[in-house]
Write a structure and sequence with these properties.
The protein is an all-alpha fold. The protein is built from 25 helices and no strands. α5 crosses α15.
């Protein structure tokens, strides 16, 4: 083996790892929000969790990515440790899919149809088709398909380069002696752990082993312990991702390590006992790429089968290693580790924005209720809620800006834009609640009261405000276009109501029925309620423009108000519904 073979081996490994990264990220973008929805669908049924873990890992071709996601979701308080155990077990089975794909490299046949399945014959065609899609397609989804094709082609070509580079090793006595050393089970396991820990991908380390197996110099006796060790080595990613997280999130890594250590210990013991008792002839036979895929799958299925009934025991073990303490408050609403999986992070941002929407609406409702009867405890809760809304806006804004710089699917990119447009309005609703609270507190502290006509008029406006908050929240949460289109005509009616209330107040002021001091407070209340309706309008417009893949609020509002029959109809209905007394 000369220097050029070494260069080919290094280049092939680089192609292999890069191709796997491109393939995995492309598949993840294609999965989009479905990935997060799948993870959130977990139940107490361990078999469903197992299938879910296998499906998600097979979908994105990375058990490490799934583990990092789980650490992030647990650290954010979105999932509990018990929900992750079945998924971790399933991910070990799902990751074996890569080994089966790589068996195509070892195909040998003179048959034309079978030869077409060789990577050197079809991967370049995949690359060509993928590049054409990336360069020519306008749809982001088609570009993602192109990236998947190119990633798969690069992965397969890298595998071929590695297998070509290591062929001369079969003739080196030193290489043969080295592999014979790995027939010692403990050394074989240690080698598997180290290789996988270094490259942080069990799929990649299995691929390297398959490339070496194509030389014909790797025996079953050497390969089996190495494969077992590779499963332990992949836990390094979980351990690294658990640095700096809550104790509960660290338990994900503890469960992952415990599962693989116990599974390897049991299987290695059974393997050694069987070999000692029956002197298994297969251990001396050369293994090929298919054999490695079979052993890899059998090992993971077997360890899962024996440990699946003991998920509660694994959780108890994690709790014993990291004892329960007082409930920790997550340092972040959204764990930064989830940014490594943008589709999941975006879905979680959307869920947090929905919580923000509901909190803002409830805060305003509580504030308006204080107009009837002031309560200091409720006032403090409103101030606390406003601080929470500020935190939501700050953290969500930071995460969404970071996400917008990543390569996203078209659907995810639009979700980011919609959420970015809305969270500022949600935060401002909280600010207006505090402004209203200030006015209400002044009324209470000075013992002032609005006249009966003013209270009745405010009641009409308050009903319109509560409805527009409900409509905007519903439209945002469900992406409901029909509901969103009802918001703008109601906002216009609220503007009219505010003008009418101000006009009536001036008349009462002129007739001496109202004081200047009360007038200032009423003006503050009316101005803030008008701004509340404006922010509700902005939220609804974000929903409507999301459907049209555009965020030009001014253009939309100008168009809908100019000549739109539906708008005119809704405006007329709201004008009838919200009429001031005596009009």
């Amino acid at each position: 083996m000369d220097i050029f073979s070494l260069i080919t081996l290094i280049g092939g490994l680089a192609f292999f790892l890069y191709g796997m990264s491109v393939l995995s990220s492309g598949l993840e973008r294609m999965a989009g929000g479905k990935l997060e929805a799948m993870l959130k669908s977990v139940t107490s049924n361990r078999f469903k969790c197992l299938l879910l873990g296998a499906a998600v890992t097979a979908a994105i071709q990375s058990s490490s990515a799934v583990t990092v996601m789980l650490v992030g979701l647990v650290n954010s308080g979105i999932m509990g440790i018990g929900q992750t155990i079945g998924i971790i077990m399933g991910s070990n089975i799902g990751t074996t899919m890569t080994a089966w794909l790589l068996t195509l490299v070892g195909i040998q046949s003179d048959n034309v149809l079978i030869s077409l399945m060789k990577p050197e014959n079809f991967s370049l065609l995949f690359a060509f088709a993928g590049v054409l899609m990336i360069m020519g397609a306008k749809s982001a989804r088609k570009k993602d398909v192109g990236n998947i094709l190119v990633g798969f082609a690069v992965l397969m070509y890298g595998m071929k380069l590695m297998s070509t580079a290591v062929k001369p090793l079969a003739e080196l006595p030193a290489f043969t002696r080295l592999l014979t050393m790995f027939e010692n089970p403990l050394l074989g396991v240690l080698a598997g752990v180290l290789i996988t820990a270094i490259i942080q991908s069990s799929s990649a380390s299995v691929g390297i082993l398959q490339a070496l197996a194509l030389t014909g110099a790797v025996s079953y006796g050497a390969a089996v312990p190495i494969i077992m060790g590779q499963n332990i080595g992949t836990c390094v990613t979980a351990l690294i991702s658990s640095i700096g997280v809550s104790k509960n999130a660290k338990k994900v890594a503890v469960v992952h390590v415990s599962f693989n250590l116990i599974g390897t210990a049991v299987c290695l013991t059974l393997y050694c006992l069987a070999n000692a008792a029956f002197h298994l002839e297969i251990t001396g036979r050369p293994i090929d790429a298919v054999g490695i895929a079979v052993v890899h799958t059998a090992f993971n299925v077997f360890t899962t089968a024996i440990l699946l009934p003991f998920t509660k025991a694994l959780e108890a073990l994690a709790n014993r290693i990291l004892p329960e303490t007082a409930q920790e408050t997550p340092a972040h609403l959204l764990d930064p580790r989830l940014l490594a999986t943008p589709s999941v992070a975006i879905s979680e941002c959307d869920a947090l924005a929905n919580q923000m929407s509901a909190m803002a609406a409830d805060t305003l409702k509580d504030t308006l209720a204080l107009l009837d009867r002031f309560d200091e405890a409720a006032a403090q809760n409103i101030l606390s809620a406003e601080n929470t809304l500020d935190r939501y806006e700050d953290e969500l804004g930071t995460c969404l800006v970071q996400l917008s710089s990543k390569r996203l699917s078209e659907e995810d990119s639009l979700k980011v834009s919609k959420t970015l447009h809305a969270i500022g309005d949600f935060e401002r609703l909280g600010d207006h609640a505090v402004n209203l609270l200030r006015a209400v507190r002044e009324l209470h502290s000075k013992g002032l009261h609005f006249s009966d006509p003013a209270r009745r008029e405010l009641a009409v406006l308050r009903g319109a405000i509560l409805e527009i908050l409900s409509l905007a929240g519903l439209a945002y949460r469900d992406n409901d276009l029909l509901t969103a289109m009802e918001v703008e005509p109601l906002e216009q009616r609220i503007d009219q109501l505010v003008d009418e209330l101000k006009g009536k107040h001036i008349k009462r002021l002129q007739s001496g029925e109202c004081s200047i001091e009360l007038g200032f407070i009423l003006s503050d209340i009316l101005n803030n309620l008008e701004r509340v309706s404006d922010h509700c309008s902005n939220i609804a417009v974000a929903v409507i423009e999301l459907a049209h893949s555009s965020f030009d609020t001014h253009k939309y509002l100008s168009g809908i108000r100019s000549d739109n029959e539906r708008y005119k109809e809704s405006f007329a209905l709201f004008s009838l519904k919200y009429q001031l007394p005596g009009v």
